[in-house]
Specification:
The structure is a homotrimer. In chain A, 47% of the residues are buried. In chain A, helix 1 links the parallel strand 1 and strand 2. Chain A has four helices and five strands. The first copy, chain A, is α/β, with parallel strands linked by helices. Helix content of chain A is 31%, strand content 19%. The first copy, chain A, has a five-stranded parallel β-sheet. Chains in contact: A-B, A-C, B-C. The interface between A and B is medium-sized, with 18 and 20 residues.
Chain lengths: 124, 124, 124
């Protein structure tokens, strides 16, 4: 394992699956602690988790912190977070509809080329 | 990246998840444009998407084209499409119940050996 | 392919998805037959499948055997089975609440480091 290792998390499940929201972020944070380059690409219904006002108000389970806090922990660990452009197209959204924690909007080709270059591609 | 790079898409979600149907096909088409060898293996409820009469009549979202058109675009880009044999067994289906766009019916061992040889295995 | 090849199956869907329960186990058994080192990590709702009393009483489809038998076949083929620790935390469970077929309780870092070292990481 060298500093250049890359992993990609493709996150596909959204708000309707409350018990699937935290794990990809936790795993991404852990990977980032190993000095791995970690990118998360939110697509399908998961993309809507990053719309302004969603993660701030989403508590995955009673007694836990809101999803935005888990997102911020991942960012602090060095994880990059992307939204896949079809999410915008399907839901009539613009870049400015997403939270500041989103590093960029990317197309499917980004996902493919990054995966081809990555050591692991997780699809959650 | 050489012409010999392989990627596998294992598709597991079917008709009940309308917003998950197009993305794997689009991503597969994009990968094929990079001269990557691209195979899609449809399994679990996703296998039923390739039954005659299903994709032809399935519009993933109002105003969009039917799924069969997205499947055909992937085929034209060079993507190979397979159905995993338990889909036939679980649903009492035969080879001829599937659309012509299906290249072959394959067993689980095909999926494993192809993955071991692939640069990326996506499971959507 | 050498004897040292590793594959990891991350299993994330539980009892509520009856048609997703057998395939990962079958594929893991097949991979183990190729002398690949095979580890399955059950997480999210899938972790609860391995609680005592669940797989023993779970028939994925009428006329089929119970899930515990498919789990035992995988174990006999040499597959190692792990539960991810957040499953215990989220559901107030202890090690002894899980069936004997579980080799160990592991943290997220285990999943990450094993994946970085694996040839394929499947996430079902």
């Amino acid at each position: 394992m060298t500093e250049q290792d890359k992993v990609i998390f493709v996150v596909t499940h959204g708000e309707e699956h409350k018990n699937r929201l935290e794990s990809p972020l936790h795993l991404a944070s852990l990977a980032a602690m190993l000095d791995v380059d970690v990118k998360m690409v939110y697509t399908m219904s998961a993309g809507l988790l990053l719309k302004k006002g969603v993660a701030e108000n989403l508590i995955p389970k009673e007694g836990r912190k809101s999803l935005i806090e888990t997102i911020r922990e991942a960012k602090e660990a060095g994880v990059k977070i992307y939204v896949c452009s079809p999410v915008l197209e399907w839901n009539d959204l613009k870049r400015e509809d997403f939270i500041d924690e989103v590093d960029d909007i990317v197309g499917g080709m980004f996902l493919i080329t990054e995966s081809l270059d990555a050591k692991v591609t997780y699809t959650f």
